[in-house]
Design a protein that fits this description.
59 residues; mainly alpha; flat
Length: 59
């Protein structure tokens, strides 16, 4: 995030830097979405509020 939104001297940029990899990520996610999911099982090892479901941080 720092590299994307700051310039070489550390100031926050006020313009948009287009991603070179995001279009590929979106394409792969769209193709693979029907095959992706969580295998919960009996729920004994799942912590709903503490596990990371959709992002790098828990709910």
């Amino acid at each position: 995030m720092h590299a994307k939104f700051t310039n070489k001297i550390g100031d926050v940029i006020r313009y948009h830097k287009k991603s070179t990899i995001w279009p590929g990520i979106k394409l792969v996610a769209r193709i693979n979405r029907p095959y992706m999911g969580w295998l919960v099982g009996n729920g004994a090892n799942i912590e709903f509020w503490r596990d990371t479901w959709a992002k790098e941080i828990p709910l």
